Amino acid sequence: MSLKLKLMDIQRFIDSKNFFNLDKVVRYFDRFKKKDERTIEDIMTDISESHKEYDYRLLYTLLKDQEVFIPITSRTIPTGVNLYDKFNPGENDSLKIKSIEGPNDQPLIPAATKNTSAILNKSYISMNWIDFLNIILKIDDTDGAFLDGEISWVRFEKRRIAHILDRYDEEEEALRLKLEA
After folding, report:
1. Are residues 4 and 88 in the same domain?
2. Is residue 28 located within the same domain as residue 51?
3. Which alpha helices (DSSP H) does the chain contain, by range?
4. In which domain, by residue range, is 80 found?
5. Contacts of 93 (CB under 8 A, 6+ apart)
6. Closest to 147 in 3D by CA, of 134, 166, 133
7. CB 162 within 8 A of CB 130
8. Quick one: 142 exposed, middle or buried, by C-beta within 10 A (0-12, 13-18, 19+)?
C-alpha cells in the first residue's frame, strides 16, 4: 500500500462523521501498528545485547503472569509442598534458595524461565514471577535476581525489582479505577 493511498484513507476517515468516536479512531490506527511478536527468550537475548528500556518493559509485561523455576535445597521444602510443584509463599514459609555469584561477584537469586534449565539441578519449585520478585526484596544478603533463559540471561538489581513491582501495582490500580468508572 502506498503512502499516498494511506493518506487518502486517513483523510476519508477524518472527513467521516465517525472521527469523534475515540474508540473507532484508535481501532483504525491500530491496523497500522506493527505487533511485537518476540518471545520472552528473544527479548532476553535483545536485552543482553542492547539493554533497551523498551525491551525491559516488554519483558516485564510478558513475565507478569508467568511461572519461574527456582533452585532450592530440597531439605527446606515446606510441609505440603512437593519438589517441582508450584509454591505460593505464605508469611511464615521459609525456603533455602540456592544463590549464585553474578558477573561482578555479587550474590544473586536465580530463577529460570524453563524447568529444563541447567541452574535448577534436581531440586526446584515453581513460583509466580511476582511472588519471586517480592521474595528477592525481602532477602538482605542478595543484590538481586538472575533470570536464566534458554539462550540468554538477565540480571535484575533490587532497585529495578522495586521499579517492576511498582509498575505492576500502578497497572492494577489503573485497571481497578477503570472498572469502577
Report:
1. no
2. no
3. 3-15, 22-30, 40-50, 53-63, 129-138, 158-180
4. 40-179
5. 78, 87
6. 133
7. no
8. buried
**pLDDT, tens digit only, all 181 positions of the chain:** 555 556 666 666 666 655 556 566 666 666 666 777 899 999 999 999 999 999 999 999 999 999 999 888 766 666 666 555 566 665 555 667 778 898 888 999 999 999 899 888 777 888 899 999 998 998 888 999 999 999 999 999 999 999 999 999 988 888 888 788 6
99 and 24 within one domain: no
- Helix 40-50 × helix 53-63 angle, to 10°: 150
Helix, coil or strand: residue 85: coil
Q: Are residues 59 and 27 in the same domain?
A: no
- 96 and 134 both lie in a single domain: yes
pTM: 0.72
